[in-house]
Amino acid sequence: MLLTIIGSIIIGAVLMLLVQMWLAQKWFFALPQLEPPTKNQYDNFKLPEALHIEGSTEDERRNPERLLCLNLIFQFLFQETKDTKQFRK
């Protein structure tokens, strides 16, 4: 009697695992295969005109209110994170 109960539990567990594996495999292979995109999904980076340094005069470059260093750092961080899922939320 005890052997029958233990045997049926083992057979039931094995059958349940086989059914789960079969369903998971069927679901994973049923997903559509996507082709790689034909065009570049990211735009080429271009520094905004307001942050250009080469056209500035010497006085404008030394102006402490301009905070050019911070502007460039934030511009870089934005360009690196703008296409991430966390940033889009």
Automatic annotation (TrEMBL):
Keyword line: Membrane, Transmembrane, Transmembrane helix
GO biological process assignments: mitochondrial calcium ion homeostasis; mitochondrion-endoplasmic reticulum membrane tethering
GO CC terms of this entry: mitochondria-associated endoplasmic reticulum membrane contact site; mitochondrion
Positions of transmembrane segments: 6-24
InterPro entries per UniProt: PDZD8
Protein name: Uncharacterized protein
Native source species: Ridgeia piscesae
